[in-house]
């Protein structure tokens, strides 16, 4: 997308929960959190506050750890 000069939202990918938390603490709301891969329609959360992003972030991290076992 960047090579074609298509405007998109900034994003980062994480497998480390602490690095994800650090990044999220530096950017504005709303924040879109997306689980990688198939999540049965439950893989996207639009967080409007710090409180709203904490639980989904932990769930996504636990889900990822489960897939990698």
Summarize the structure.
The protein has 69 residues and is an alpha+beta fold. The chain has 2 helices and 2 strands; from the N terminus they run αββα. The chain has helices spanning 17-24, 50-67, and strands spanning 31-34, 44-47.
In words, what does this structure look like?
- It is built from 2 helices and 2 strands.
- The protein starts with 16 loop residues before the first helix and ends with a helix.
- With 69 residues, the chain is of the alpha+beta class.
Descriptive terms for the model:
69 residues; 38% helix; alpha+beta
The order of strands across the largest sheet is 1-2
Element string (H = helix, E = strand): HEEH
Portion in beta strands = 5-15%
How many extended strands? 2
Question: N- to C-terminal separation?
Answer: 33 Å
- Helicity, as a percent range: 25-40%
Low-confidence stretches: none
Q: Decide which structural class fits the backbone.
A: alpha+beta
How does the major sheet shape up?
Answer: 2 strands, antiparallel
Tell me, rounded to a whole number, the average pLDDT: 80
Overall spatial form? globular
Count of separate DSSP helical elements:
2
- The Cα radius of gyration reads 13 Å
């Amino acid at each position: 997308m960047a090579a074609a000069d298509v405007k998109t939202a900034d994003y980062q990918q994480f497998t480390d929960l602490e690095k994800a938390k650090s990044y999220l603490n530096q950017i504005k709301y709303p924040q879109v959190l997306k689980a990688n891969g198939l999540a049965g329609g439950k893989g996207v959360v639009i967080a409007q506050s710090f409180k709203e992003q904490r639980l989904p972030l932990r769930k996504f991290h636990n889900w990822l750890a489960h897939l990698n076992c």
